[in-house]
Design brief:
Layout: H1 13-22, E1 31-37, E2 43-49, H2 51-60, E3 64-67, E4 72-75, E5 84-91, E6 98-104, E7 119-122, E8 125-128, H3 136-140
Helix pairs in contact: 1-2
């Protein structure tokens, strides 16, 4: 595996545009993005990005998604403080999925778990395999 770049923000708009133009957004203008902890390989979450979210992520080095439920940009950590700093953004072979290698601050899941992938089949039952590290009330002040 190659080492991610030291400075993930890409200042040059033409350089950002080359990646943006290579992405095959779906009919809704979205592309799935998997967030993975850069140094451990831990898969943290899957979220969606539109062109503006990818553009902002590349320009700032802080991961921004598109919230389908809110219908707008969602800057990871804007309400919880649990930010994702981008270290590398990779496009898959078909151009229709992204992999964001990130430095996760705190937990990634809105349930207070490190990863959103905390449910698995165990003994024929869907089981929680990871406990929350922090309560959602503490994360979001509710």
């Amino acid at each position: 595996m190659t080492t991610p770049p030291a400075n993930p923000a890409i200042a040059d708009p033409a350089t950002r545009a080359r990646l943006l133009d290579a992405i095959r957004f779906d009919a809704r203008g979205l592309v799935p993005c998997i967030a993975q902890q850069h140094d451990t390989g831990e898969v943290l979450m899957l979220a969606w990005m539109n062109r503006d979210a990818v553009e902002e992520t590349l320009a700032t080095g802080r991961v921004c998604y598109f919230s389908r439920s809110r219908g707008g940009l969602w800057r990871k950590g804007e309400t919880s403080g649990q930010q994702q700093l981008l270290l590398d953004l990779r496009l898959d072979c078909d151009g229709d999925a992204l992999l964001a290698l990130v430095q996760q601050t705190g937990v990634a899941c809105h349930t207070g778990r490190r990863s959103c992938f905390y449910l698995a089949l165990r003994d024929g039952e869907l089981t929680e395999i990871a406990a929350p590290e922090i309560s959602p009330e503490e994360l979001y002040g509710r």
